[in-house]
Amino acid sequence: MSEAALSRIANLISLEDDLVKIDSLRQQFVKEKSSIDIKLNSATQSQIDSITSNLNKLNKSSIKLNNIKAEIKKINSLYDESITNLSEYDIIEKMTKVNQFFTQVRNLYSDISHFKRNLDNINDLIDAEYEVITEDITYPLNYIFKIHYNLTQARNLQDYLEVESSGLSDDLKSIIFKIIQPIKKTIKKFDDLLAEVIISVTEAVKEGNNELVFKLIQIIEFESTEDLNLILKNNLDLNSNILNINYGKVRLQKRNYKKFFYDKLEDSLIETFDKCIEHFSADKMLVYDNLNWLEDELVFVNDTLSQVFPKSWELDNFMQNVYYNKLHNFTMDIIKTDPPAEDLLRILAYDNHYNKFLNKRKSVIKPQQKSIIGEDLKNVVLDDYLKVIVSKMEEWNLNLMQSETKTFKERAQPPDLYNYHQVIEDEDANDEPVVLDIESSVYVLPDFKTPLTMLKEQADVAAESGYGKILVGVIEHWSKCYLQRIMNYQAIIDEEYDNYMSIYNNERFLIKESKASRIFRGTKKRPVVNLDEMSQEELSNISKEGLLEYLAALGNTFEINTDRLQDRFLPIYKDKVHTTYQSSIEQSFSDTMDPSTNLHVQVIRTIVEIIVNDLYPALSIVFTKKWYEGGNNNHLVEDESMASRIVETIGEYMEELRGYTTYDIYSLTFTILLDTFIAAYIRIGYENILHGEGKKIDPSAVKKFKSFSEGVGRDVMAFYGGLEHLFTRKDARYLLTSLRAIEFLGDLGTCDNPMEFIPQMWENEILGSFYNCSVEYVRGICQCRKDMDKNEINLLVNQLVKTQKSYHDQVEPPASTQVVRTLDDFRYS
């Protein structure tokens, strides 16, 4: 008995009371045993029945297998008999071929007899399709597949007849030719229809007619596949025997419709471009301004049309290449005609635009197609353009300088007036800074905007080209021309000043005339003019009127233009080029700054010298007896003092200048005039004492020469009072400080114990007002003193030099706006 049964019995009779249940348990076990036996017998019988069934099936399979083997033996036997009995095999083969031949002949007869009628049906279908598609681009070519299928069958028959007739007699060949001749017309019609579809694909897709394109693609792909199959069969020599082939399904000659597609598409694109050229035949350069349609077309092809076609067709690259080649050839033809510089630049501008346009496209761009003229030729064209521009600019500049020279020298008309906005920094009554905005009319030279207009025109065109090299080249050569104009004006000023001074020179009033001339203008000899023998008209031809006005106009012109160059032109053109070119542009504009400043200085210096020249008659009596007496002499207006005459002359000039110069030129001119006039006042006074009618100053004199300090003070008061109103409050400080150079002379010339007083005054007062004061200023006044000998003066001057060096070591120089240079370069003969 199993352990499971024993365990179960143990669970049932685990208690003593359970023993009475043994009989019932026995009966229960008997029933369970009977039930298990019945189930076991049923399962066993089922397994036996299954085994019996499978054995029966196996027996049937064995019988069938034996039958198959018997049939295979019969097949092998028949095969062996067919191989071994050759005569019977040949007969069967010949009978088969005869049967195929008769069938082929019957089919040929049927197809040939209906050939013309079939072609007429195909022609009618083609004509109907062509008529609709030419009128309605949305037409989906409903019958194109039917046309293509039927025509393909006919062309296959044509191929078959042409190949098979190659070995026939000429008469038979002629018959075959007549039979197939009509198909050429049908092929031409189909090709025309297909060409119309090809050139319409772009517009069809734009109108949403993708079905037309899909059908076209399907036909071209089918033809391409069939051509490829033909090539493979020919290579494998599978078409050597075509007598009994199914000619309706077999192609014997290539159709090349893939090439046909690209050829017709290319012809269409070229025709479109040629129409654009023809439209602008009067001025072909306008083509470059009207190529938006081409760019739109390429964008559409790239973004839309190429997505409809198979990727392997590379439609976008093909169309891009066609247009590039056409554009390139068109451009090269123009360049060969040696076009003007403006046209070259327009070509370069579009070339740069075209390059940027292509770089935005997704299609693959060949490196050589990034430029419509090619990189090598582009560099040549750039150089040629710059050469042309340089040549034109030099020619233009030469003509401009000739015109400017003539205008400046003849001065037939007053200078032009220009409304100029100025910002002036000043101080109010409380010495607080204020800013004044002033609109005033100032003199400028005729056509003063011409040089900057020329720059703007050329630079704008160069900037539009997109080539920084061109823009930099234009600005660099314009800058060189600008410098040539400055040098020309400098020469004109020198010449005109010499002509003016040959007539109006007042240096004859001065002692040591030759030395004074050397101090002011160098050693250049002026024309010798005999004023007594010349008429007023002849004198006017030597130096025409209006020199001062034209000098002022010249200064204004270059000041305004310099400001415009720096404030407007430089930022604009810097922003138009890559950072690698910006420094070159900055340098070009910077190169004009110093020469322009030098020209300003020359203009102002010339104006000042003209004014000071008019002061010489009055200044000629400084520190002489007449000066002590009040300044009356036969060279001046009767009863008018020297100081009054000077104030009146300076006032007239400066009032006039204030009416037509910019404030900057006016202020700078007045500053330099003060420096020059005061230095001349002192120098001429020294020369009069040392070499002329003046007497040396005797500090110990009781009456006669004691008035020296009073005379100096009198002049200072007259100068300040007469000129103060010509300055702003801020600039009036310069007038006050510069006049101290005259005021100090009173103490320097009359002080007691000069060897002690002058060094103290030098350190405590003079250097504070004139930081770079020349020691010649003190040497001169000391030489004019009667009580100082040469040794004392030399000793004193040496002491002053040391003091000045020590002062400079200890005291920082004043700000540039506060420097007073009246005595910086002072000297006397």
Keywords:
single chain; 829 residues; mainly alpha; 5 domains; two-stranded antiparallel ribbon; 30 helices; 72% helix; elongated
Brief summary of the model shown:
With 829 residues, the chain is mainly alpha-helical. It has 30 helices and 2 strands. The protein has 5 domains: 80 residues; 141 residues; 105 residues, no CATH class; 230 residues, Tetracycline Repressor, domain 2 (Orthogonal Bundle), CATH 1.10.357.50; 210 residues, Exocyst complex component Sec6, C-terminal domain (Tetracycline Repressor, domain 2, Orthogonal Bundle), CATH 1.10.357.70.
Q: What does this molecule look like?
A:
- Belongs to the SEC6 family.
- Pfam families: Sec6.
- One of its GO terms (molecular function) is SNARE binding.
- With 829 residues, the protein is an all-alpha fold.
- It has five domains: 3-82; 115-255; 262-366, no CATH class; 374-603, Tetracycline Repressor, domain 2 (Orthogonal Bundle), CATH 1.10.357.50; 620-829, Exocyst complex component Sec6, C-terminal domain (Tetracycline Repressor, domain 2, Orthogonal Bundle), CATH 1.10.357.
- 72% of the residues lie in helices and 3% in strands.
- The chain has 30 helices and two strands.
- The chain has helices at residues 3-12, 22-84, 86-113, 115-135, 144-164, 170-180, 182-199, 201-206, 210-236, 257-279, 286-289, 292-308, 315-336, 341-359, 375-410, 450-465, 468-504, 513-521, 536-542, 547-574, 579-590, 593-619, 625-629, 642-660, 663-691, 708-723, 732-750, 754-769, 775-783, 790-810; strands at 416-427, 433-444.
- The chain has a two-stranded antiparallel ribbon.
- Strand 1 (416-427) and strand 2 form a beta hairpin.
- Helix 14 packs across helix 15 and helix 25 (663-691) runs parallel beside helix 27 (732-750).
